[in-house]
Structures are given as C-alpha cells and as structure tokens.
Amino acid sequence: MASADDTEGTLTPVDFIQLQHYMEESSLRVKDVIKEFHPGGRYAKHTSGECLHLEGFCLFLKTYLEVESFPPNFCQKLFNYFQQAELDGSPKRSTSHGGGVFLRDVSCYFSVLEEGQPREKLEFTFKLYDKDGNGLLDSSEVDRIIAQMMRAADYLGWDVTELRPVLKDMMTAIDVDDSGTVNLEEWVKGGMNNVPLLVLLGLRMTEKDGQHIWRLKHFNKPTYCGVCENMLLGLGKQGLYCNCCAYTVHNQCANKNPEPCARTFVKTKEEIGKATHDWIRADCNASKCQVCFKKIKTLAGKRCVWCQEMRHDECVVPGVPKCDCGDLKDHILPPWVIYPVSKEEDTNLLSVTPDGHILQIAPILDTHPLLVFVNPKSGGKQGERVLRKFQGLLNPRQVYNLSNGGPIRGLHFFRNLRQFKILVCGGDGTVGWLLDAIDKMNISVHPPVAVLPLGTGNDMARCLRWGGGYEGSDLKEVLKEVKDSRQIPLDRWSIKVTPKNPQDAGDPVPYEIMNNYFSIGVDASIAHRFHSMREKHPQKFNSRMKNKLMYFEYATSESFSSSCKNLKDCLSITCCGKPLNLCNSLEGIAVLNIPSMHGGSNLWGESKKTDGAPEAVHSEVITDHELLKTATQDISDKRLEVVGLEGVLEMGQIYTGLKSAGHRLAQTSEITISTAKALPMQIDGEPWMQPPCEIKITHKSQAAMLVAAPTKPSSFFQFK
C-alpha cells in the first residue's frame, strides 16, 4: 500500500535529483522507447488506448532508464505525480480513464529533461501530439505540451509564472492567421527563435560567433537586466546569464535583441594582432572607472571581457589603450590571434568548428595559452560547473567539453603553437585518455599537462601536488598555480597481456598503457566488485563520498572472505629475468609508477638511510632487501617499484598512516608476471577478471607534466 507521501502526487527536489541521476546513466531516448508501447511493439499489451497503468508505467521507466529493477515506492510516487497533473489540468482536457496516465504526457516530460538538440525535441513533441497525423496542432494540444514543459521547468528551478507568458506570446506570434492551429514548420521556427525555450530544451552550442551561451541562474545579490535595466526579482532562478561574457537578462528580455556576446575570433586576416577591447554592458557595482577614476553607477558602465577593465560609457574610446588581457594574459587565447581560413587553405575536417568555421591560430610570442579539457561527468556536477567557469575566464574557443568528441579537436586546433600548456579537469582515467591522444597526434611540441582533480582517487594529481580533489574554490587561483608550476617528465609503461589459452574468454583488458599502477590480488578484487556494482546500479555511485563509503563496504567484506589467499601458489614474477621470492602471507602485488594509490596511499613509503646501511645505486633491477630500504621512488627514473600486500587490514593501515609501507619486493625497469588461475587485476583503477596469462610491462615513453609548487595550508588544494 502506498504511503501518504506517495499519494500526494508531488515530487520533492530530492526525488527530482534522483530521477535525473537515473536519466544521466541511460543511453536511450524517449522516441526509441515509446515505439515499444505502440501497437505492434513488444509492450503494446501494457497500454490501454493512450494510457499506461501502474504496471506499464513501471515497465516504461525500467526500459527507458535501462535498469533491471526500479524502486517500487519511487515508481508509485512518479505515477501519482503524473496522475495528479491530469487532475490539476484544464477541465477541457480529456483525462486518462481507469486511473492511468497518458503515455504522450509522460514521453513529452522526459524528452524535455533528456539531452539532445532543441530542434529534434520540438519536432518530437509536435509529432507526439499530432494524433491524427494531419500536420496540425490545435490550441488544446499545444497547451498540453506547454504544461509538460512548465512542470519540467518548475523542478529545474525556473520561475514558471514568468516563463508561461513567454511561451504563450510565442504561440500568438506563430499563429499569424488566428486559426488556432500551428503546423510543424511554424512550431519549430517559433521555438528556435525563443531564447528561454531553447535554454529549457538544453541548447548546448552557439550557432554563430557573438551569440550568448545562456544558462538559468539564481542571483544572491541585487542584479539588473542589461536590456530593460530593471532588477531581477524572485526567489528561484531569476534570469538568464551568459557563461562567456556574464551578460544578464530577464527571461522575457532575452528575445528583445540584447547586446551581442564578445567575439571569439577576428573576421579577417587584417585584424590579426590588433588587441582591441571587447566591451559588454555590466553592473559595475560602484567600481571605479579606470580612466577618470570616479565611481560607476549601476548599469552606467562597461567591462572588457578579456582584461576585466571597467569604464563609464563616455570613457570608452575604441582602441585606446590596447587590451592586454589583464591578470590572465599568460593563459588567454585572445580573439585577435584566431582567424578564419578557406576550405582550400585547410581541408582537414577536424578544423571545422561546430558553428561551421575553419579557424587557425596565428603565432604567439611571450605567452603560454592554456588549452582546457573538462570531463563534465567527473566529480558529480563539478565538471559542468568548472566547464562554465572556464568559458567565462578564458576564450570559449580554448575550453573543450570532452563529452563532445574527446580531446582530438582541441589538440588539432592548437597543433601549430610552439608554446602552450594543457589543463585537464577530471580523474585519473581522463588524464590517461588525454595522454594517449597526445601520443597519437602529430603535433610539433608535446605540451606539458596540469591536472585539476575531479575524480574519486586522483592519484596522479596527488603525486604532482595538484591535490586530492577540487573543492570549488576560485579558478583564478588554479590558473595562478598553473602559471607558477614547473615541467617534469612522467614515465609511461606498455602492458602486454597474453592469455595462456586463447579460448579463455575473460574480461577485456582496459588499457595497453600504464601511467599510475598495476595490481593483482586483494585490492584488485575489491575494485572489481566495486566496478561491477557501479555498472549495475549507477545511481548509487553519484558522489565522491558515496563512492568511498561503498568501497569501504566491499573492503570490509573482502577482509572476511580473503579471496586471494595463497597468492604465491598462483603466480610467479621475474624482474629483468631475475625471479622474485614471494612469502606465503601475501594476498596482493602492486607495480607502482607513482607514489600514490587508492586515493593517497604510498605503498612504497619513504626511504631513510641509516648509518652504515648500503645505498642503492641506479641499476636495471634491485631485489636485495637492504638496498631496497634506501631505494627512492621517482616518476621519471624509468623504473617500477614492486610491493607486496598482506591483505585488506594492511592496506587500511597504510592509508591511515598506522603503517608506513607495504613489503618492498623489487625496483626494476621491466617485469613479467605469469599466473596459473583466473585472478582480479587492475590498471590505473580500472579492474577486470583475467584468466591464466602472462603479463609483460616495459617502458614506453615519457610525458611532459606540470608539478605544482609546494602548497600552503591556505591554498585551494585539499589533500586527503
């Protein structure tokens, strides 16, 4: 029986966030799933006319969200939510009979929330409600579409009392003959010219240079509209904010020809090198004009997008003085060094930007433009926020969303620059992805890479002093750290896994290159269980803290089961042809390239030389226990460290500092491991189950990395 909360027909903000997490992990689209519930589809028997009853509704959710099971209470709450919407609707609407919900309304609601192009969403919703297929929607059908958009907008934080009249005005404008109906062309044209609707439908990319990249925003202090100059009022998200130039407007004012966004490139080669300001009307908040040094009243001044200089309207004199890009001049790729070329001058398809231009970068002296890659899926919602902030701090042409085709386009765009740096924002997997792409690109200079840690473990970022996780501090401080960093080489290693029986079908090996570590045994077993459960129930692993708690749970379980006991009997290890002697107590072997594993554990530990102890010298392989005590770890020495682990308890002791290190077994420039049975393994945090095989690890190359200066306690970096 449903609880009282379930029968109220409302969703809490927590419910809505949970629903969004499910949708983010699904690869299906509503338009694909709805076909299965139409006549002739696999699930047609679950529809009654145009309606879904509770059983069919739950099946729709499981199919659309790609989950084997969906919480029954949550399913009931969503079902009641759609039923209540019918009761709250206009009396003129037909209501679902028999206590069901309309399949069209459910599909329209989810199509608004899912990722996709606004034009496709507009076409889909039109065809969804065009029941008779005559190519027309009447006013009642349009009202139903608007109702679903309003409900989605409400939970996304919009002020729906302001948005509804905007959409009503759109309908009035496109119904030019007052017939009360609209066709597909009118519907799409009206929607594509309505800025608030495009933002609601998930517009991701500007169509041409000078267009704003809008997002809905809540303002914590008095803020004024750049069009009507009135204050933005309301308790929710009061207006639209441009990610690139910070221009702010009311929702309804976005359609009233606001000032254009700042340019991101020059239109002709004659403009190359002419460093001119790009002024945007701004709420200068009593700042001083940097020409007359008098205070600027609200909306009585302008701000340069690149150097952040502020002036009165009357103090803006074009071209005097030149723009120097301000405090971030070493990082910004200014528009006057980016210029268009013809298809004949550059025939490579990678050179064509999403908005249809073919752009190149002119030679730059004395600065080091920063190429930024952001994985928006890292760190929960952190990646999306970081992406938006960098679009405002730098030129959007130098900030790339890795979800849109990976790093290749960005590397290709910067390929001819002699001096530039890269900042990759993500976890260890994202860093490895980028380093692989740099290896494959034919660029004249391999740029050094800095890391903004957004993942869970962030071991690479830790050992390069970029910290254990970005906590949301000012990104200008991050850019200052990048400027002050120094370059070091990072060893990269090739891993070749050869099954002893080619017929054994194990999991695919995740990587062929190792940047951080390789392990086999107890820690890989925990990681494999964690990974398998995350693949099965992604909604349970949506934050860094939850991930760590789940990892701890699996580690506790492994400590009781000891699934990797007697590891010595299952494998043999040789280092540069020299066999290693393993003790019976070991349950895991770790091969380390960097001094951080499991989110900050240093399994090799610190090396301290005591009086009279022999000092380790650089050689291909060291296995002598006395020499290993003084052997130091270096990410650039073309050597690996081999460490033994006695179990989960020892791993926990090392992580918490109760024990200084694992068992040092060897330091080597090459290692071969032969296994006699299926064992869990992992490379750089990606686990898999491997049948009997031979693993050979050899040095591949070195990557240029940036290591941060030693951090102070007040720095933005947060170690574990």
Short description:
The protein is an alpha+beta fold and 720 residues long.
Label the structural class.
Answer: alpha+beta
What integer value in Å does the Rg equal? 29 Å
CATH topology of the largest domain: Tumour Suppressor Smad4
Kindly state the percentage of residues in helix: 25-40%
What's the level 1 CATH class of the largest domain?
Mainly Beta
Proper CATH architecture of the largest domain: Sandwich
Envelope shape = globular
Note the gap between the termini: 45 Å
Tell me the β content.
15-25%
Number of separate strands: 30
Order of strands across the main sheet = 24-26-25-23-20-28-29
Q: Summarize model confidence as the mean pLDDT.
A: 83
Taken together, the total number of domains comes to 3
Subcellular location: Cytoplasm
Keywords: ATP-binding, Calcium, Cytoplasm, Kinase, Lipid metabolism, Metal-binding, Nucleotide-binding, Repeat, Transferase, Zinc, Zinc-finger
Family: Belongs to the eukaryotic diacylglycerol kinase family.
Domain EF-hand: 117-152, 162-197
Can you put this structure into words, describing what you see?
- This protein has 720 residues and is an alpha+beta fold.
- The protein folds into three domains: 6-200, Orthogonal Bundle (Recoverin, domain 1), CATH 1.10.238.110; 269-275 and 325-490, Rossmann fold; 492-702, Tumour Suppressor Smad4.
- It has a seven-stranded antiparallel beta sheet. It has a six-stranded antiparallel beta sheet with strand order 19-18-30-27-21-22.
- Helix 3 crosses helix 4.
- The protein is globular and about 90 Å long.
- The model is unreliable at 1-7, 89-97 and 714-720 (pLDDT under 50).
